[in-house]
Structure formats: structure tokens, C-alpha cells
Amino acid sequence: MIELRHITKRFTTSHGELHALDDVSLTINDGEIYGIIGSSGAGKSTLLRCINLLERPDDGAVLVDDVDMLSLRRGALAGKRRRIGMVFQQFNLLDGKTVYDNVALPMRLAGVPDHQIRERVETLLGFVELSDKANTYPPRLSGGQKQRVGIARALANNPQILLCDEATSALDPETTESILNLLQRVNREFGITIVIVTHEMQVIAKVCERVAVMSLGKIVEEGRVLDVFAYPKEPITRRFVRTIIDDRVPAPLMPLLKQERGHQEVWRLTSVGTSASDPILSDLAREFGIATRVLYAAITEIHGEVLGVLIVQAIGEPAVLERARRSVGEDGPHIELQDIDQLRQAIGEGVAA
Amino acid sequence: MNEWILEFFGIQPAALGEAAVDTLYMVGAALVLGTILAVPMAVGLVLWRPDGIKAHKLGYDALNFFVNIARSLPFIILMVVLMPLTRAIVGTRIGTTAALVPLTLYIAPFIARLFESAILDVPKGIVEAAQSMGASTWQIIRHFLLPEARPSIILATTTGTVALIGATAMAGVIGAGGVGDLALTYGYQAFNTPLMFLTVVVLIIFVQGIQSLGNALARRARNRA
Ligand SMILES: Nc1ncnc2c1ncn2[C@@H]1O[C@H](COP(=O)(O)OP(=O)(O)OP(=O)(O)O)[C@@H](O)[C@H]1O
Ligand SMILES: [Mg+2]
């Protein structure tokens, strides 16, 4: 278990003091894949680097498996770091050493005997599917292959934790997908806890169980990934969720709302699981005689579960609409009444963006 | 053949051979000694700099100042300034071996600067990766910084060697032998033009050869893959 308690980190820059981390607390459980997302400069990397003390916090406590990292002496800290692998955006491989020697290096530093190193490197290169590249030098590898070597190297000393700082940010979407699959295998097959820092919401959606959203040195929102996607609270979180589920009513549909003569409401329906694809609209028409018009609809897979978001215009008597809303909310999706004026604002934002 | 050489260059062939050996001896020995001194200086400059992994203001400022001072003295002046030290170490102020003292102290800071910038060119991420593996400072130097800087270090050593050849020519002033001395004694003082040209040709071949060798080694280290 990783526990960060009230972490504060300040940097002195030419523009004065900079609060890179401001009283950040976080708990990451054994065996989970935890995501940290935020815009550039939010403090994600600094926070990640506090876990293995590449960055020493000015204040607060770092506990890894109940060991107070800040109290460790140099030798003990080095030993602890060997059990915490790290993967980087720029790979940080040694260009002058072969793939084999790159992966062997952490073990050589730790004084592992040669025959054991050989066996372990072969296993690891097999695991990342690069056995045929053992004698190649990193400049000859593609980005995805380099990151595979980076991951194999990080696993060399049998770590319990893997820290990934933008591990896929330098890769194309397809390669990103394959690296994420590899990280998932690392997590499932070896039970390694993985902490992923990223600014890409699809990385969070695909592999993370829980996520923390960072902004200006603070964690502004935290929780199960599915919950955060379904019910984002903070504006920054909503912006990140929109990179996957762009739940804004398209501008050309707005006149339909304005021109409607009868009583109307706009509902946002959120549902999780296979019920996301239930025929809810025809049910509403049959049971309550309500006419509905779809303004936005999306069904997305989030960490292996289905998330449905539906925005509809509902037309009918106010009392009927209210009854219908109650009935839907009881056993169906989460229903939320939307302010039509705010919808228009959202569109303004969308056009500007 | 021997007679022909004596007649044409006005010098015993053995003296030519001796000059070549003296030059090689001075360049070789000063290069080895200078590099041995330069590596710790370069490493100190890199580790102690304000954003280095062992930032140490006083150590850095002192080392930096020393290197700058040493680098601002022309070799011919350094040679004279160091005479008392040379006598203390070698027992005499003149001769080929005596010249090694100023040559070494001339070339060490020069190479140290070049090594320093070669090491600073290693991406910062390499050091981060090393630290994340729990590498000690010594391991970072030994297994990460120096090997990754190798191609640039080879080129720096080449530049240093060429600079040394230039300096050894001046060492003739304090009675050291070598190709430079030959040119001074026979070429300049005795107006032996053929010998002058011979030394010029020999020096050009020396320098060209060393530069080509250095380039080839650096290229091999860089794209070994
Ligand atoms: N060593 C340092 N010295 C001074 N300022 C720093 C240092 N490291 C980070 N910072 C500053 O701290 C803030 C947080 O940096 P950090 O690298 O943690 O952000 P990030 O969320 O990882 O951003 P990015 O997505 O761009 O990597 C930034 O404003 C950055 O400029
Ligand atoms: Mg970062």
C-alpha cells in the first residue's frame, strides 16, 4: 500500500516560490492500477516522484507498505527503490548498451549473480515479446519497442510497484493500446501495483480502477474511474471526461428546443452496465405517452464496464413528465434535469473550443 | 640512404627517429596523466554544479575557478611558472621528462572542460532512471554517465591530443626533444629549410592521423548498433 499524507512541495523559481504540491493526500491499494490525471504543470510528475523520493517533499509523509520512506538512510532507500520500478515518457534507455544489457543493468547494480541475470533477462524479454532484439541497441528500436524494454528493465528486480510517468504519451494510439495491454498483464500476472500519470483520459478509461484528478498542485477529485466518468463534479474533471464522452448538444439541434411550443424538459440519463442499452425511450412513450427526441447519446466502455449517457428532450404535461422522471429514476438510469439555458452555454463553449 | 638523409636534411637519421620518439613519449605520457586528472575534475564539475546530483557550491566554485585560471595561461607561460614545481617533482627543470609536468597540468583542465560538457550532454532522464533503480552516485558515474558520454569523450580526447602536439613543440624551449625542437634548433636557428618542411609534413600527418582515428572510434561508439 502506498500512502501519501499531506504532501507539500515548493520550488523556488525565477518568478518566486511555486507551490507544486499543496497538501496532497492519497492512498493506493495493493494490486490496483491507479491513475493520476491533470493538465500540464498540475504537479502529477512531482507527486509520482515523491513516491520513490526522486523528489523529497518539504512536508508530509510517504509510506510504502507502512515504511516511512523519508526516514530511510541512503542504503535502505536504494533497497526500497529497487522494489519500485519506474517507466518514463522518454524511455531513458542507455543508447550505448544493448537491449539485453539495459534490462540486466538494474540487477548488476544490485549485485545479482550473472547466471541468474541471464535467466531473468530472457524471461523478461520473452514477456515483453522482444526476445529477438536482445542484441539490438535502443536507437534501432521503435517507440513502442523502446517502451517495452523500459518496462522489462523496470520489472528486473521483481518490484511490487510500477510507477509510469506518461509512459504512453510519446506513442501513437495503436502502440499506446499495446503498451496499456502490457501494463494490464503486468498487473494481473504479477500482481504489481501500478501508478499511471497521464494527461490522456483514454488511458484512465482503459486500465485504471481509481483515478485522482489534479489541478494546480491539489487533488480536486478522486474515486472509482466509472463513477468519475459517470458523475464528474469539478469543471476540470468534466473537461477531461468530455475528451471521451463529448456530451454537448450539437448546435444545429438547439433551434428545435427554442421553437418547441408545448411544455418541455431536457433530461440527462446516465446508466451503468448492460442496462445502458435498454429500450427506455419506447417504454416512456408506451407508459406515459411522452414524446422524446434524442439530443445526444453515447455508449462507452470504461474499464471493462458499459457507461451510457443519453440527453433527451421530453415533451408532455408537467405532471406527467415529473411522474415519468420518478419512475425512470427508481429502477433505471440516473436521471438529471438539465437547464436549457445552460445547454446553450455549453454549446458556446463547444463552438469556441 | 643514411648519407642521403644527412646530406639533404643536414642531420643524422638517428636524430630524426629520436625526435619522433620524444614527441610520441611526451604526447602519450601527458595524455595519460592528463586524462587521469581530467576525469575526476570533470566528474566533480558535473556532480557539484548547482543542479547536479551532489550540488556543492564551494567545491564547484573552487574547481571551476581553478580550471578557468589554468585554461587562461598560454602554455609557454605555464611552463615558466611551473618550473619550481617541475624541479620538485622531476628533479630537474629541463629535458623531455621535465616537460611532462607543465604538459600534464596544461592539458588536464582543458580535457576536463571538454569531458564536463560531454557528460552534461547525457540526457537528465538517464540519471533519473539510474536513481529510480537505487543506483549509488558512484554507480551513476560508472554505469550511466561515463558510458553514455563515451562518443563525445573520445572526440574530446582527440581534440586534447591535437592540442598536446602543439604544446610539445613549444616544450623545446625548456630543452625537451621532439619534432618541435628539431624545427626550432635546425630549421629556425640554422635556416635548414628542408628540415623545416619535413617537420611540418610530419606534424600534419600526426594530427590528421589522430583526428581520423578519433573520429572513426567515436563514430563506431555512436552507431554501434
Ligand atoms: N525541479 C523543478 N524546479 C522548479 N520547478 C519545478 C521543478 N519540477 C517541477 N517544477 C514545477 O512544478 C510544477 C509541477 O510540475 P510537474 O512536472 O509535476 O507537472 P506535471 O503535472 O507533471 O506536468 P506535465 O504534464 O507537463 O508533465 C510545474 O509548474 C513545474 O514547472
Ligand atoms: Mg509530468
Return residue spans of chain A where pLDDT drops below 50 for at least 5 consecutive residues: none
* Major sheet of chain A: 6 strands, mixed
For the sheet with most strands of chain B, the description reads: none
Q: How many helices of chain A?
A: 13
Global Rg of chain A: 25 Å
Protein model, in words:
The complex is a heterodimer of chains A (353) and B (225). By secondary structure, chain A is α/β, with parallel strands linked by helices. Helix content of chain A is 39%, strand content 30%. Chain A folds into two domains: 2-241, P-loop containing nucleotide triphosphate hydrolases (Rossmann fold); 251-352, Alpha-Beta Plaits, CATH 3.30.70.260. In chain A, strands 6-7-8-3-9-10 form a six-stranded mixed β-sheet, sandwiched between helices. A four-stranded antiparallel β-sheet of chain A has the order 2-1-4-5, with helices on one face. A four-stranded antiparallel β-sheet of chain A has the order 12-13-11-14. In chain A, β1 and β2 form a beta hairpin. In chain A, α3 packs across α4 (114-127), α4 (114-127) crosses α5 and α11 packs across α12. The longest helix of chain A is centred in the middle third of the chain and has 18 residues, at 173-190. The mean pLDDT of chain A is 91. Chain B has 225 residues and is an all-alpha fold. Chain B has a single domain (2-224), classed as MetI-like fold (Orthogonal Bundle). Chain B is elongated and about 70 Å long. Classes of the chains: A alpha/beta (353), B mainly alpha (225). Chains A and B meet through α2, β6 and α3 of A and α7 and α8 of B. Bound molecules: adenosine-5'-triphosphate and magnesium ion. Magnesium ion binds next to α1 of chain A. The site of adenosine-5'-triphosphate has 13 residues of chain A, from β1, β2 and α1.
